[in-house]
Amino acid sequence: MARLGNLKYLVLAPFACHSIYTFFMIKDESHQRDLFYILVLPFTLSRMVHYQLWISLSRYRTAKGNNRILDKSIEFDQVDRENNWDDQIILLGLLYYVVYLILEQAHHMPMWRTDGIILTALIHIGPVEFLYYWLHRALHHHFLYSRYHSHHHSSIATEPITAVIHPFGELLAYYTLFSIPLFTTLFTGTASIASFGAYVTYVDFMNLKGHCNFELIPKWMFSIFPPLKYLMNTPSYHSLHHTQFRTNYSLFMPMYDYIYNTMDKSSDTLYEKSLERAAEVPDVVHLTHLTTLESIYHLRLGFASLASKPHASKWYLCLMWPITLWSIMLTCISGHTFVVERNLFKNLKLQTWAIPKYRIQYFMQWQRESINNLIEEAFIEADQKGIKVLSLGLLNQAKQLNRNGEIFIKRYPHLKIKVIDGSSLAVAVVLNSIPKGTSQVVLRGRLSKVASNIALALCEGGIQVVMLDEEDKKRFKAKLTPEVATNLVFSKSYNVSKTWLVGDELSEDEQLNAPKGTLFIPFSQFSPRKARKDCFYFNTPAMIAPKHLENVDSCENWLPRRVMSAWRIAGIVHALEGWNEHECGDMMLDTEKVWKASLEHGFCPLTKISAA
Asked: Does residue 151 sit in the same domain as residue 266?
């Protein structure tokens, strides 16, 4: 279905339309409508929701670290490999429709039959679990493993959706196996809508649970009913199968591993160790927030396929408007900072925390106190945990909000944590993005801390800075020495230079007035909207992360893969260097020192430019 892209969902459309038509327009001789046929589509959609809930929960829990089983990182290649997890949901939906249309026994199934549910359970415990165990062992024979099962085992650190990532032939073998209870009840006349739905939901739940990479089964369940250890596995039990390969073959019930002596001897130890594991305490935290209204789906905790690509608007997200509206209402009423991502840089533990507020809310006067309170809570929590550095991302460092974090430093002078707004590195990145030999640049945008220091550095370096707003030029000139101020000029013409340093306030009209071939280099946290196809646009200040930055499986907002914003990198470098000062308010670090330290630690300049 890869060739169809998102159009693959239309495969179900003819059957769904037919089921709706027959339900409302056609009645049989008994004048009864057939519920099973019309419920296939809602059930298919509910399975997708079920999977997505597990994805979000697993990514959140593994980012926090409490009860995490395996520390091995997940990278983009795994995300891309597992991107087609919904194919098997569509396939089962198709099979349900086809079975209904072919088999008369599938028509007018009752909602509930106790004998059918008991029969389904017994067949699963017996034949299904037994046959799966030996099929699974066979798949680990080198002939079948190299041709089929190795694809599934490519993921050592599993995510819930790893459970359904198999070659098509292997997937058909599993479906044949799981269809045994369903067809048995169908041909014995004991099938019901509840037994079909409950069995598939049970298989999904156990499968997703087994690959979630955090332990969630409480010890008291096995204390109350000891035989349960033979009837239900734990996430840590199956995780061992992905690391050891030759043990713990059972599907959901470990009894066959006990019978055939293939249970891993460290299963109980890993289970208890995972249960006792506390939340991870990072060395560095980057504090970000939601951006556009669609950004909740682009978060690492949202849709994995969207999070793994630079943020771009998708038309189908409009269909999610009830969830989007609910999230907006929730963020307006209350909220708490949450962990989005964890990374490892050499021996440095990193986390990204998000303030549950959208960008638009940062410009609402009545929301500012609430936002500042959330940022303040994050400061205090990070300091209490012993975190070394907190870097402020996006608008969490806005001057009108908290003076780049300065108000918290003054309010809590005994804070041990170092607060970094990343301005020095952002300035360094912009300065090093200007083409060599440039003698004149246009500076357009709000004179923020970053913009002011860029202009100062350029003027001191003998590069002429042209401002298109006379009032901005007068205000900034007052801060300069007479000698340096000679390099600051005002112009009414837009054709003075093809190198523009811009903030996100740059309008489309201003872009249209720029000369053809102009290079727009943003200095702000957000990029201006691109309006020219005959001009070139840099990304916002950012650098390419080195290979030893681990567990990178999502993009930072609109930046390309494995590219990090200067503000985020600044906190990492600050901790690596062990610098013992804050960078907030009007305080700036030595830009050259910060730039060299970033390069020494493996971060590379981002030279990629794009047309609109």
From this structure: yes
